[in-house]
Amino acid sequence: MGAKVELLRKLDDRSAVIGIVGLGYVGLPLMLRFVDVGYRVLGFDIDAAKVAKLTAGETYIEHIPAKAVAAARAKGFEATTDFARAREADALVICVPTPLDRHREPDLSFVIGTMESLAPHLRAGQIVSLESTTYPGTTDEELRPRIEARGFAVGRDVFLVFSPEREDPGNPNFGTRTIPKVCGGTTPDCLEVGLALYRQAIDRMVPVSSTRAAEMTKLLENIHRAVNIGLVNEMKMIADRMGIDIHEVIRAAATKPFGFVPYWPGPGLGGHCIPIDPFYLTWKAREYGLHTRFIELAGEVNRAMPEWVVGKVADALNDRGKAIKGSRILVLGIAYKKNVDDMRESPAVELMELLTKKGATIAYSDPHVPVFPRMREHYFELKSAPLDAQSVASYDLVLVATNHDAFDYDLVRNHAKLIVDTRGVYLEPAANVVKA
Fold this sequence. Notes:
CATH class of the largest domain: Alpha Beta
Number of strands: 13
Mean pLDDT: 94
Strand content: 5-15%
């Protein structure tokens, strides 16, 4: 029990070194939080450009200010691409992507590659925590064997937990410290160490009985959102056919003080979690002979939204004697959600691609994304267009794809020839506004 006792002591007196592996939307806020409570933090990332920026005290995520990174550097935070330095850390927290591959099946290459990079440098007295969203069994089936292959006993020499990230970029009401943290351990001793790690930085810990329960918890959270968004997107299409404004209906229903939670329709699902995570469970469920019809139906509805929106764009233009082909269309907002610069899985990008394929000339305006970033699967050589009366009036159609607070929606309504609103920003009917 010596390794556990010593590690608990270091975590409790904050002399432990915390290693954060993956310095993105999850890892970077977590690094700042551990630095804030007095730990020395060592950050790992395979992207040398990110490491160079952090080393210089700069940021690459809009809602994380450079001054916070610079302050962390002043308190001893280091970023490195050298995974051999993992031996210096007492805790290794893995925050790497878990996307889907081109067959819409789980791609664990980042998780497995990270664990294989860390494994040669593990030592007794460390805790390894996986935060990346994944299917139940990943921690036990993928990480544990790779640790044990190095001769360590999990639960005695090295402690292994799963504690899913719950970051919500751009949410002013909740941050890393105030969002309750679920944690499941491979063994009871692993759980004890995991709770000791996170309770230093997080206000409320939520222990569960196993890593599998913790993995399932995260999936349930995101599947709950995906299914309810799928439901309200289907309701939107029904209401549209009936000439009813679904946003008015949702606002009215939300006045019920019990039994109803409002979810809002949109042009499709975005972000790293909601469009992807449900399919980790559907894939794993097949191993148990189960077909997750409910989840897959919601996914089918949500994935159809961009095509549905393009249909509304085509109808709106057609009613004014124009075709999509040859039309100049301004996409308003291309981040996946309001008030952030996060482009992961943004439905706006799919809308841009679909409209381009149909012959439209596309521009976009987004103060949070001044230049269209190079993405793994998508790229437009565009910069954010100005949003002034003359510019807005020059387009055949303005497509509201992401409802950033920074936009002057009155200006757009007053000067746009035609608006297709996928976010319900225009509550009152207007001759040039079409709801989608």
